[in-house]
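Example 5.3 — Endonuclease III
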Amino acid sequence: MNKKQMREILDVIGVMYPDAHCELNHSNPFELTIAVLLSAQCTDETVNKVTVSLFQKYKRPEDYLAVPLEELEQDIRRIGLYRNKAMHIQKLCRLLLDKYDGIVPQKHEQLTELPGVGRKTANVVMSNAFGVPAIAVDTHVERVSKRLGAALPDDSVLEVEKKLMKLVPREEWTVTHHRLIFFGRYHCKAQNPGCPVCPLLDRCKEGKKRMKPARSRKDKVINNTLAKKG
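Solution (predicted structure tokens):
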């Protein structure tokens, strides 16, 4: 794929989702970091249900360390992998206090040093909390990028990110990240994508494969109908 082809995709998803944004509820960089950590292998909807009460109970890193690990586990029990995530949260909070005076650092390499914070989480925090352009590749971004040909089927998450960074203007990285997520979450779904009404079907090999059986069935019905009339 070249930049001109990517521009066409960006323009289409821009029209479809002009107001795409981070759907994780948060009011500061610390809450966003916790929310993104919780969102791994879990829907934003579930995370938001949990953080409604979580962020009322825990305001600062000190608050998460003031309770036993088992209590924090129960507070996030509805989240997948909640035991590991509770452990990561407490370790993260300890490191924030010991190394950064309880403040979430603004450098990518510092963020990825935090327990439970990988490259994707760091990119989300950098772009949404600190306004630094970044493309965080989650399951939606990866799926859509590969289906539309911006990346190869066997590309790693990092390779997908690097290819998108080359194809998309830097000033559009963050909004493109959100729009690709919205496109993947609400239209180009993993199991039931909206191929029949997709404005990007011509660019999607996966979509064309899915539509072939439907066209074949339709052609068969038409042929049978004509045969009966004949």
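Remark. The chain has two domains: 1-190, 195-229.
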